[in-house]
Amino acid sequence: MTIxxxxxxxxxxxxxxxxxxxxxxxxxxxxxHAGLDLLVTxxxxxxxxxxxxxxxxxxxxxxxxxxxxxxxxGAAVLSPALTSALVEVQMTRRLAPKWHPRKPTRTDGxxxxxxxxAALSGLAKLLEDEAxxxxxxxxxxxxxxxxxxxxxLALPEADLRVLIAEVTLAGTRQAQLMLALPTEGRGTAPAxxxxxxxxxxxxxxxAAQVMEAETALxxxxxxxxxxxxxxxxxxxxxTIPLPSASVEQVACETGCxxxxxxxxxxxxxxxxxxxxxxxxxxxxxPLRAAG
Length: 291
Description:
There is one protein chain. By secondary structure, the chain is of the alpha+beta class. The chain folds into 2 domains: 3-211, Chemotaxis protein chec, CATH 3.40.1550.10; 217-286, Surface presentation of antigens (SPOA). The chain contains 9 helices and 11 strands. The chain has helices at 3-9, 17-34, 50-55, 80-92, 106-126, 130-136, 148-154, 195-211, 228-232; strands spanning 38-48, 62-67, 73-78, 140-145, 160-169, 173-182, 217-220, 250-254, 259-268, 271-276, 283-286. It has a 6-stranded antiparallel beta sheet with strand order 1-5-6-3-2-4. The protein has a 5-stranded antiparallel beta sheet with strand order 7-8-9-10-11, with no helix packed on it. It is elongated and about 80 Å long.
């Protein structure tokens, strides 16, 4: 069934200005920029906290960070059915008879971002109410968000105004798109606060999360080269001489071989340890098995 026929058999929706504008912008962007026959069957606005929004994100959904004027941040979340359809029509010019949900990739994000940018641009042009333009205009896709943890970090702490669109794809598939934008004007900070200060806090929080991530270090006593035949012929109980090994010269290396420190092998509280010898003061680093 074509979009025109579906409109004829379905009564016109009685939604508000922003919902109506988003409905029209999505329909047009999907067809003009992806060749996808998309019909928005219902659109509504809900106000919710960022945590509540993240909790509603379905498994394998595609999330894109959207950025707006004055540091405004939000997100567009596409259900797996919508992501699959956008990728299929842009890669093969048709919808496959069957599809299976899968974890989205950056390539999926790039293909979806073009359509979302067109829809967001169309939304800004179609908004007639100045009050709607204050919170919904001027946004565009910024970053692919690989998981819900990244989505949590990308969203502001203030409540979000969420445009929820239920869509039908080519008259067969049912899908959903959620567009979450900050409620407090164009920026992410409440009135009277500096949005740049909020951006600085966001960067600080993100840096703190990254710095708490664990990385494996290897303590290297010696590196040597031996013939492949000798390696293949190794037997249980055989001894391998380490001519250049020294407990006075131990290197701490990352998994990719980058040396981050050198020191001396010893003990600390019953554990093997390395006393770091670089820098103004020595530091003892206990060794433990990588998790």
